[in-house]
Amino acid sequence: MADDTAPTGDTPTKKRVGLPPGTMTAEHREALAAGRRRGRIVRAYLESLQQATRGRGRPITRDGLQKRLDAIDPKIAESNDPLEKLDLVQRKIELQRRLKEFDEPVDLTALEDEFVSVAADYGRAKKISAEAWLEMKVPK
What we know:
65% of the residues lie in helices and 0% in strands. It is mainly alpha-helical. The chain has one domain (25-135). Helix 1 (26-52) packs across helix 4 and helix 2 packs antiparallel against helix 3 (82-103).
């Protein structure tokens, strides 16, 4: 019983499960890095598809975003509530990011080319069916 407790005797020590630290092979690290890379590519492509297919509501225009951005600064200056001010600052950052996207549109063909190069491996590794890809609006 003394082996399962810390030197003070009141807190059990945690036993390590798995390989000791530093024993991961270079191939394993490369495989993990490749998986993360594929995941980033798939996420970027699916997000671009999602943004391209937004059709509900009023269309978002550059002028509309700029008007909303211009209206936030006076609200930030007037606000005495720190939580409200924090929320307004975050909205301002988000509007600036969206406005920047209008100026620098995403290159969909490059995203699609990258996606095509990793989609089969990603789908196989994650057991994603063709129906799931189609449901996410990925073209055949």
